[in-house]
Design brief:
This protein is an alpha+beta fold and 169 residues long. It is built from five helices and seven strands, in the order βαβββαβαβαβα.
Amino acid sequence: MEIKEMSYMESRELLNKFQISEQEHDLYLTNWVDVVDESAKYIWAIENFEDPRGFLSYKILPLANANEFIYIVKIYVLKDYRGKTPILIDDERVSQILFRQISIKNVDILTLESADIKLDKYYKSMGFEYNEEKSRIYSQVIDSKNRQIMVREINKEISEEEMQLFVTR
C-alpha cells in the first residue's frame, strides 16, 4: 500500500473513485458531502490509483500563542477496512496508518470532531480526549458549532502501546 499526500485539487479524482467504491457497500451515504474542503490537505492510503482504501484530510492551524495544531477535518476508510473485523494491511487498520502519517508532521497537538459515540471510544483508545475547556478553545479556531473537539497531545506521556501507533516505520 502506498501513502500519498495531496491537495484537494489533486485529490478530486481519488475522491470520486472512493465515493463510487463506498457506494457499492452503502447506497445511502449521508455524510459523504462533508468530505470536501478545498483548503485541506489529504493523506491517501491507496493500493493503486484505481483502488483507494481511505484518506485523512487535515489543516494545520495557529493558536493565539503562536503554536500550531492539526485539525483532522475528516478520516474516512472504506467499509471493508473498518469496524469490529476490518481487513488489515500489514496487521494494522488503515486508520492507524493514516494517524501515524499525520502524527509525523512535527505538530504536537491533533484535534478532531468525532462522528459518533462508537468512534469516540476508538479515538479514546488512540489517546484522544475530550476536555470541555480545550474543546471550546479549539472549536473557536476551527469555527465549529459542534464544540465536541477531541484532543491528542503527542508530547505528553503515553503508553508504549499507544506510542507504537505513532512511530514511523
